[in-house]
From TrEMBL:
GO terms for biological process: carbohydrate metabolic process. Transmembrane segments: none annotated. This is Phosphohexomutase. Its cofactor is Zn(2+). It comes from the Bacteria. Zn(2+) binds at residues 87, 92, 150. One of its GO terms (molecular function) is mannose-6-phosphate isomerase activity.
Length: 287
């Protein structure tokens, strides 16, 4: 039987064309360009390793005894805008950690989806006229059901909590080149996936388990995420499954295991309650 303790995770870091350097400068990641830091990941494209304790160096999948895990959590630093995209099998949520003045993102369409009109706008290069751009600031939350068109804008750093899938249909990419050629688009697949949502429908999914409590960002069928601000000491009761704890600001410790801004801990199911000491802002996610 494996020993159970708070596992400090080593993120899986991705360099993508639109990424910036903020994660290395301010969030305890390697220096240089990092577009995405996968803070909790058991995925074919990347698996976190354990940094501390008896199992240091072990893949999280080896510790869990499984190559499958229900969710993935990323920190995403968008120096430039991400492609306009849609997910066929993934629901996710964005928490805005930082945003430059004037930053905005794409959150759905201005009007109802019309496939013929949308494709014509793609062909003519005017599709941005159909997109719903929303100004953002730190602390904002966006819940993105599968089928909703979206894109992170330039100058935004987010925490993304999602179902464990990386399937993305890229609809529009601003004509950017990678290695001298345009990045692949998936227009036909996206056209079959895009759908409309009312605000009420999105909120119903975001809080489908019906617990809209202070500090809770989402409590949907896939995950429950909250923000906890701590100044001193705070006790957390035992969860029914795992707990992910990511420090977005400050520093402290979890039952003596120290953390700083940008660190990620995985508390395995069965560990029990835990105590956090410090001055910090934490992103806490459970099933």
């Amino acid at each position: 039987m494996k020993k159970i303790y708070p596992l400090k995770l080593i993120s899986v870091n991705k360099d993508i064309i639109w990424g910036g350097t903020t994660l290395g400068e301010k969030y305890n990641k390697p220096a240089g360009k990092t577009a995405e830091a996968w803070e909790l990941a058991v995925h074919p494209e990347g698996i976190c390793r354990i940094e501390n304790g008896e199992y240091a160096g072990m893949l999280l999948s080896e510790y869990l005894g499984s190559e499958k895990f229900p969710i993935m959590i990323k920190l995403i630093d968008a120096r430039d805008s991400l492609s306009v995209q849609v997910h066929p099998i993934k629901t996710e949520m964005w928490y805005i950690v930082e945003a430059e003045p004037g930053a905005k993102l794409v959150y759905g369409l201005k009007d109802r989806f019309d496939g013929e009109k949308f494709r014509a706008a793609l062909d003519s290069g005017t599709v941005t006229d159909l997109l719903n751009y929303v100004p953002v600031k730190a602390g904002d939350v966006f819940f993105i059901p599968k089928g909703l068109v979206h894109a992170i804008g330039a100058g935004i750093l987010i925490a993304e909590i999602q179902e464990n899938s990386n399937v993305t249909y890229r609809v529009y990419d601003y004509g950017r080149l990678k290695d001298g050629v345009p990045r692949e688009l998936h227009v036909d697949q996206a056209m079959k996936t895009i759908r409309d949502f009312t605000e009420e429908e999105i909120e119903a999914q975001r809080f489908s388990r019906g617990r809209k409590e202070p500090g809770v960002l989402a409590d949907c069928r896939y995950f429950r995420t909250e923000i906890a601000g701590i100044d001193g000491s705070a006790d957390f009761s035992e969860a029914s499954g795992f707990v992910s704890v990511i420090c977005l600001e400050g520093q402290g410790d979890i039952d003596g295991e120290k953390f700083v801004k940008g660190d990620s801990y995985f508390i395995p199911a069965g560990y029990g309650g835990f105590t956090v000491n410090g001055v910090c802002r934490l992103l806490i996610t459970t099933e």
